[in-house]
Amino acid sequence: MSDAEQTPQVEPHTESQLAADTRDLPAVEVGAEFGPRTVHLTRDSLVRYAGASGDFNPIHYRDDAAKQAGMPSVLAHGMLTMGLAIQPVVDWVAAGDPGRVFDYQARFTRPVLVDVETGADVQVSAKITAIETIEQGVHTGKQAAKVTITATFEGRTVLGKALAQVLL
């Protein structure tokens, strides 16, 4: 299995396709939408994320542990799901600079179950709902986009009230 098959994948897969994807991003304006973008997760993705995050809860890589916890099978880490959901916003609204995302919130509404053979596909889309001048705090006077993020698995929302604010 190649490294590309073992780690979370954002389609398209090649660097030239990713560059083309970036060139084709919609303008950053109220009402603009991006996506859906599909991210494929495998069990290997979950193990690698566990190593990177330090979250070695066995419900994320062992079926027996997941079933004992009342889940039908292994599930993706919630923070992994949040991370893959914000990435298109970073690519699009923040022009590739994750430091411009100064607020990001979401509620975990459903698990992403990752099949041992087929993995799981999470669809992510985003919409700019407002562009406003920040009136208080560290970023007073700067422009920020409010972005609503939708992440679904098997047609059902997995992150509720997913909202980000991004400096422009």
Question: Which helices and strands, and how do they pair?
Answer:
Blueprint: H1 3-6, E1 9-10, H2 15-23, E2 33-41, H3 43-53, H4 63-68, H5 78-92, E3 101-108, E4 120-133, E5 143-153, E6 156-157, E7 159-167
Antiparallel strand pairs: 1-2, 2-4, 3-7, 4-5, 5-6, 5-7
Summarize the structure in words.
This protein is an alpha+beta fold. The protein is 27% helix and 33% strand. The protein has five helices and seven strands; from the N terminus they run αβαβαααβββββ. Strands 1, 2, 3, 4, 5, 6 and 7 form a seven-stranded antiparallel sheet that branches. A hairpin with a 2-residue loop joins strand 5 (143-153) and strand 6. The longest helix is centred in the middle third of the chain and has 15 residues, at 78-92. The protein is elongated and about 50 Å long. The model is unreliable at 1-20 (pLDDT under 50).
List keywords for this structure.
168 residues; elongated; disordered N terminus; 5 helices; seven-stranded antiparallel sheet; single chain; alpha+beta
Number of helical regions? 5
The average pLDDT is 89
Number of strands: 7
Question: Looking at the structure, what is the overall shape?
Answer: elongated
Rg, nearest Å: 17 Å
Helical content class: 25-40%
